Amino acid sequence: MALSAEMTPTEIMANLSWIKEDAKNHSELPIGTLTAVHRDTWTKARSHLITKVQNIEALTVIESSAFAVCLDDHDPDSQTSSARQLLLDDGTNRWYDKTIQLIVFANGRAGLYAEHALIDATVISRLLTEALTNITG
Question: Is residue 71 in a domain?
């Protein structure tokens, strides 16, 4: 999967489809889980991971991205179940070092997980307002 600065919607969908399919080939615990553990534990694990060139490249892409997109297998059927899944997920499909994570559920529902230390809540609110305005016209 090649990375480029700009992709068409078709290319984005193809990449997301590839990621979903590729994830089925892995049974080990996702690396993002490590971002949910104690900072010292994650620091040690990250130090070990970057001893391999391919891990350095992958972490560089993740860490330099503006946000993360989490493709979630759950399919909440209400606002309450969506909120519960967004807030109380088991942490295996998140990257908690990202300030913004867009979480898209299997049924098309979506939500945003935002870590507020780096940005004010009004920035997130404005981002969501602009996105919804663009979607709904």
Answer: yes
